[in-house]
Amino acid sequence: MLGSANTYNSTWDLTDGQELFYVIADPNGQAIHRIRDILLHRSVTTQDARPADLSFQRGYLPVLGYLSSRWVVRSTLRKNVNALYGVLDQSFEKVDRVLQSCIGACMTRESFSDGTVAISGLHIFCVITKCLYEYAIRFKKAVAQHPCFAGLVTKLVEWSNSWAIAVCKSPPSFEDPIAGWSSSGKVYALGRMKKSINSLFEVVEQAEGSTLRRPPLSRDIRPQKSKTKALLDVLQMTYDGPGEHHEGGEPRHDNDHAEISKIKIIPTHAELTCPVGPYLPANLPGAPHHLPGSSMERLVDIQFRLLREELITPIRTSLAQVRDDMKQPSTTKTQLDAIFAKYGGLYKANHSGSDSVTFSIYTGVTFRNMEFNGVRGLAAELTIDTPEGPATDPSPAKRDMHWENVGKRRLMHGGLLGLLWVPPSSSTQGIRFYLGTVTSRLEDLRYSAKQSAETLTLKIS
């Protein structure tokens, strides 16, 4: 199944990838332990496997391929992604020995085939390079903590160079599917592979504690003369356009479009909960983009998308934090549980692998009425629980004074408010998220606070 989760499988769509990712990357699930078991398997071989052996090509490599797949590296669920790469971090010495042994054996016999499946070195080197690159940029101390990392990358350079030379000979001296390709096809494919290896080499070379030294004969992977050129190469490798330009030709969600005129300003539920990261074009001359490089349309497209994402990111991050708490077992006490016990309060998220965010949560939402007027338009009147503290003081005068001060920063007129609707089953799969603006003014909040110490009345449009 892991081997099916790749860009080249036309039967594997976005829904399939998301559902598998939720299962595989669950830090509390069993699947992630099976990933660890595979990476730590006692005996991994490239051919003539015994019953107790694990095939490198059909069992081991698909795990590394999944770690470097778009379903993982482009997911916005950073906690889950880091949990997967944490398994690689804990198993890295064993992974290094397996790669050194298996790839070395294949290079010696000049074939990556296991006798039943023809597999190309292009696929093997690209998968391993991508996996190591993503690991190195997520775990900044990986190179220092694992002295074998630099040695593995050096060998990867040597192997890939030797393999590339062998498959380009006439006749080829390496049994590989790519050997039968046209010369132009080989040049293009090998060029992209070497760019990937060069990016990995530079990350590891610059890492703290790195012992990596460039092999004297590896001229093809020396750093680019221009740092901007190197950055453009990385952007080209990781480019994934908007709408129909997205991998597979399918948009990420219902608000992912190539034309910005079709994008709704207010983010949709599908957009905010999409596990695949948004399309954010680089504001750099020469960077990949779906519009012509010198056009005004391209400039407007970039500015619109970046400014809009600046608004959406805090909302998306806040919603992800709440959903993550809701997915925890009932025996686990979360920050969300503590806030509900106090009938609302501040949620503070500031931990590794996630953006720092602080937002207010209000509980006990009850709809009361709908009204319309020429100034505010259509608005819903609702009540919320008053959070514990000064807002619930028995004295109406003190409650009035509290909201006179707080109302200038929270629940202020024109402010954005999100409503999270949870189905009776409390399943995270059925929740819906809606956005609205506060139409109540400060005087309305103060009047409502004086009427009741337990609830507060708001109007939202």
Distinctive features:
461 residues, mainly alpha, 3-stranded antiparallel β-sheet, 16 helices
Secondary structure blueprint with pairings:
Blueprint (H helix, E strand, L loop, with lengths): L13 H11 L6 H9 L4 E2 L8 E2 H12 L2 H4 L4 H13 L1 H18 L11 H18 L3 H4 L2 H21 L14 H24 L20 H12 L30 H5 L22 H31 L8 H7 L3 E5 L7 E5 L4 E8 L3 E9 L10 H11 L9 E6 L10 E6 L4 H10 L3 E6 L1
Parallel strand pairs: 1-2
Antiparallel strand pairs: 3-4, 5-6, 6-9, 7-8
Helix pairs in contact: 2-5, 3-7, 6-9, 7-9, 7-10, 9-10, 10-11, 15-16
Notes on the protein architecture:
The model is unreliable at 216-225 (pLDDT under 50). The longest helix is centred in the C-terminal third of the chain and has 31 residues, at 296-326. Helix content is 46%, strand content 11%. The protein is mostly helical and 461 residues long. The chain has helices at 14-24, 31-39, 56-67, 70-73, 78-90, 92-109, 121-138, 142-145, 148-168, 183-206, 227-238, 269-273, 296-326, 335-341, 396-406, 442-451; strands at 44-45, 54-55, 345-349, 357-361, 366-373, 377-385, 416-421, 432-437, 455-460. Strand 3 (345-349) and strand 4 (357-361) form a beta hairpin. Helix 6 (92-109) runs parallel beside helix 9. The protein contains 16 helices and nine strands. It is elongated. A three-stranded antiparallel β-sheet has the order 5-6-9. Strands 1-2 form a two-stranded parallel ribbon.
